[in-house]
Amino acid sequence: MTRTIQQLFDLKGQTALITGGSRGLGLQMAHALGEAGARLMLSSRKADDLQEAVAELQAAGIEADFIAADCGKEEDIRHLAQETMRRLGRIDILVNNAGATWGAPAEDHPVSAWDKVMNLNVRGYFILSQEVAKLSMIPNGKGRILNVASITGLAGNPVEMQTIAYNTSKGAVIIFTKALAGEWGQHGITVNAICPGFFPSKMSMGLIEKMGEDRMASHAPLKRLGDSEDLKGLTVLYASDAGKHITGQWLAVDGGVSAILGG
Question: Looking at the DSSP assignment, which residues form a beta bridge with residue 148?
Answer without folding.
Answer: 194
